[in-house]
Amino acid sequence: MSAGLFGTRVIAAPMAGGTSTTRFVEAVHHSGGLGFLAAGYKTVGAMRDEVQAAKAAGIRFGMNVFVPDMRQLQPSAEALAGLERYRQSLLRDASRYGVDVPPLTVDDDDAWQGKIEELLLDPVELVSFTFGLPGADVVGKLRRAGSMVLATVTNSAEAGFAAERGVDALVVQHGSAGAHSGAFLSAESPAAGRPGDRSSAPSTTADLVREVRAAVGLPLIAAGALSDAAEVQSVLAAGAEAAQVGTALLRTEESGARQLHKDALGSDRFTETRPTRAFTGRYARALVNEFVRDHDDAPQGYPAIHHLTAPIRAAAAAAGDADRLNLWAGTGWRSARTGPVAEVMGGLLAGG
């Protein structure tokens, strides 16, 4: 089968928080895939350093950027009170490790403007966005700078809005995908339910691709529980240009994920995944551990809750305590394998 628009049938998802390192993305490139670096949680300088390192390595790559949600950065008095109550609920978790829960931080936009300016000064081949849509002006400037612009969507309505902004392609994320949902239209409303748990949602990633393909004419990248070659082929047959995988590569040698996270994905202790707001205030699919169960009522509030739980997560990792660490995982996590990226990528690319 042709490698298509992106030069490959398999793309490594951007995994923020240290997983998608330059070394990891380079390994993906040399294995026949295309990798994305993740600007999320990094300073502009740190993002710049990774871009320069990847360019120096002579590899193809993209950069993913979080879109700030002004509704979350300017919470109401009621929302602030709910966040403070959640902060108080975390004191017991923090006391296990002798760390403090920091004061609320609600206005962190992840250096949005600085990152866009840097990507215009030093363009990369592909720029993808998640958690929302950049303005049409930003899309236009990036395209004129020579970047292909991708938006992450979770349904046909979001796809339509993204197409109107002038993006080049869409990452179509099914609810089975690990880590944060990219949903941005009424994703947190009671009627919508938890991302990935909506009864009306397409049951498979291939079904979602077909739904979005019928709504827009843009090239599509499919994401969500694509853990083997057969699943990759299923989304290509449904109309995707490529499959984006994350959890399938998390346990590889080159992945920058914590060893505790890698080991948890292979442990019999964990038996299910669930979308949870407990760690960051935004729904993200994770292995169900004690922290997820204890904080099932976590409120909406990204990135405020991300900052509140950061010391607890760091201390849990240092203590080897997988029950209070964010163990991001898609529903196909049991298929994740250890070994070099090249071996896992070889399996995903087989049969093309």
Description:
- The chain is an alpha/beta fold and 352 residues long.
- It has two domains: 228 residues, TIM Barrel, CATH 3.20.20.70; 95 residues, no CATH class.
- Helix content is 38%, strand content 14%.
- The protein has 15 helices and eleven strands.
- The strands form two sheets. It has an eight-stranded parallel β-barrel, surrounded by eight helices.
- α10 links the parallel β8 and β9.
- α9 runs parallel beside α10.
- The longest helix is centred in the C-terminal third of the chain and has 16 residues.
- It is globular and about 50 Å long.
- The termini are close together.
| Mean pLDDT over the full residue set | 94
Report the sheet-strand fraction: 5-15%
Binned, the helix content reads 25-40%
Order of strands, widest sheet: 1-2-3-4-5-6-8-9
Poorly predicted tracts of residues: 187-193
Which properties best describe this structure?
15 helices; alpha/beta; 352 residues; globular; TIM Barrel; eight-stranded parallel barrel
Question: Could you outline the blueprint of secondary structure elements for this entry?
Answer:
Blueprint: E1 10-12, H1 22-30, E2 34-38, H2 44-56, E3 61-66, H3 70-73, H4 77-89, H5 91-95, H6 112-121, E4 126-130, H7 136-144, E5 148-153, H8 156-164, E6 169-173, E7 179-180, H9 205-215, E8 220-223, H10 229-237, E9 242-245, H11 247-250, H12 259-265, E10 273-276, E11 284-287, H13 290-294, H14 304-319, H15 341-349
Parallel strand pairs: 1-2, 1-9, 2-3, 3-4, 4-5, 5-6, 6-8, 8-9
Antiparallel strand pairs: 7-11, 10-11
